[in-house]
Design brief:
It is built from 23 helices and ten strands.
Length: 483
């Protein structure tokens, strides 16, 4: 029983330290969220200073009353987590590894443009009444991610009344929908695929092939979507050349206009600020971590003087003030050290990824992207898998061949015919190449794709081919057949 009790006590004592808790929270943050959090700390804790140092002993002049007036929330790390050691080295209280410049400029990249925002901007150019604009805005908000309106007009009228308190009619909603259907990208606001394609054709210059394509979609859509081309040709009296021209016209249309603008993060355009930058210079990969607008932080040592004064004083007020300042200094110490550890953890992880995927980072050739999972990087860095996951999540890197989320470089692997592990991304690339090169009059079946990949050295099951096709948006062989 004594041994069991001792084991339980040891297990219960294995909990995260305040520094670990702080570090974990900071590691999870992308650089933009980190910037905001640092500014919140600066506002909440007056002991933390971000003003450039003019000299070693030139802290700001402050008083105890100013500290107490700026304090807006009670408690400290000491209150929350228990006693702490004051043994953090002084050189760790100054975050100086963000870069040489105080405020280096750096680019932001818009990797996503808001679909909703784009339509709202176009709506702003239309001469509409406030009521019409409200109805149109509601319709825009009801479109799905592909740009379709999947709901009937009557339900929109009801929702306008119940959810927005706006009285409208089916005729008015229909009218505003027609306005939205004139917006870019062409085809937006359609209620089904047929209407989406027709809207795009109506925007094109009227040639014989465009006119025939409109006829096919209006009169023979069901036969066309099932690829019964001979029936379509016979019913509309089209020649084989005319039908080929129709197929070319329709193939150039976009069945998912909303997909042109990615809204997967939120309804606002997302500006990506890369956490890392990788350059290829003189045959060497050079990693850097721009500091952006995260300021250098330090402890304002004027507060240390206040704490020391209170410790030596016999005044109760001075001792209370000193205790208050100590809480703030302790909190600042943990935050600055956690910020330093975040930087080192991110850098170590990114360097391990670059080392693991070295050949890929030379030129961005996907065939050189090796299978890699979180465990691989955890073993190289010595960090837990959960730590690597936090580093990878929501972080981006700018390379000389594009901007990528760190998650992009991770993929499972399969064995080739020589027993070597290859990335699933490499296999998908080979699959895409085979489909692109196939005879469209007699497209490759999944079994034939399995055989084709086998001749290239990839051992892939038929069900895996079907899964990869779906991920690559490649239809079945029957749907890829052309005249």
């Amino acid at each position: 029983m004594a041994a069991m009790k001792q084991g339980l006590e040891q297990k219960m004592q294995q909990k995260l330290s305040p520094l670990q808790i702080q570090t974990i929270k900071l590691i999870e943050m992308p650089v933009q969220a980190l910037e905001q959090h640092v500014r919140e700390v600066l506002n909440d804790n007056p002991v933390v200073d971000d003003t450039p140092q003019k000299g070693a002993d030139e802290p700001k002049d402050v008083s105890i009353s100013e500290v107490q007036e700026q304090e807006q929330s009670g408690g400290s790390l000491e209150d929350n987590y228990g006693p702490q050691d004051d043994d953090i080295p002084s050189y760790n209280l100054h975050v100086n590894n963000w870069g040489k410049d105080e405020r280096p400029e750096y680019n932001t990249f818009s990797v996503k443009q808001s679909f909703t925002q784009s339509l709202q901007e176009q709506l702003g150019y239309r001469n509409l009444t406030d009521h019409e604009r409200t109805v149109a805005m509601f319709i825009i908000g009801s479109l799905d991610e592909d740009g379709y309106l999947r709901r009937d007009i009557e339900s929109l009228v009801d929702d306008l009344a119940f959810r927005a308190g706006v009285e409208s009619s089916a005729e008015e909603v229909e009218k505003m929908l027609k306005v939205i259907q004139e917006f870019e990208p062409s085809g937006v606001g359609a209620r089904d695929l047929r209407e989406c394609l027709l809207l795009q054709l109506e925007d094109k210059k009227r040639t014989e092939s465009v006119e025939n394509a409109i006829r096919v979609l209006k009169e023979q859509f069901d036969a066309f979507k099932n690829r019964h081309f001979q029936k379509v040709m016979a019913r509309l009296h089209l020649s084989e050349d005319q039908m080929k021209a129709v197929l070319d016209e329709i193939r150039r249309l976009n069945p998912s206009p909303g997909g042109q603008i990615d809204d997967s993060y939120n309804d606002q355009a997302q500006q990506v600020v890369p956490d890392f930058r990788l350059d290829y210079e003189n045959g060497q990969l050079v990693l850097s971590m721009p500091r952006f607008s995260v300021p250098e932080l330090r402890i304002n040592h004027k507060y240390s003087e206040i704490m020391e004064t209170g410790r030596l004083s016999s005044s109760k007020a001075d001792k209370e003030a000193a205790s208050f300042v100590k809480q703030k200094i302790d909190s600042a110490k943990w935050f600055i050290e956690a910020l330093r550890q975040r930087q080192n953890t991110l850098e170590s992880t990114m360097r391990a990824i670059i080392e693991y995927q070295h050949d890929y980072f030379i030129d961005g050739d996907e065939s050189n992207l090796k299978p890699m999972v979180l465990k691989d990087i955890a073993e190289r860095t010595g960090f837990d898998i959960s730590t690597i996951s936090r580093v990878v999540n929501s972080k981006w890197i700018e390379t000389h061949f594009g901007i990528f989320p760190l998650k992009y470089f991770f993929s499972e692997g399969l064995e080739n015919s020589e027993g070597e592990e290859v990335s699933t991304r490499e296999i998908k690339k080979a699959l895409r190449e085979m489909v692109d090169a196939e005879d469209k009059h007699n497209p490759l079946t999944d079994d034939e794709l399995v055989e084709g990949l086998a001749t290239r050295g990839y051992k892939v099951a038929r069900r895996t081919i079907a899964k990869y096709r779906a991920q690559l948006d490649i239809p079945k062989a029957r749907m890829r057949r052309e005249l």
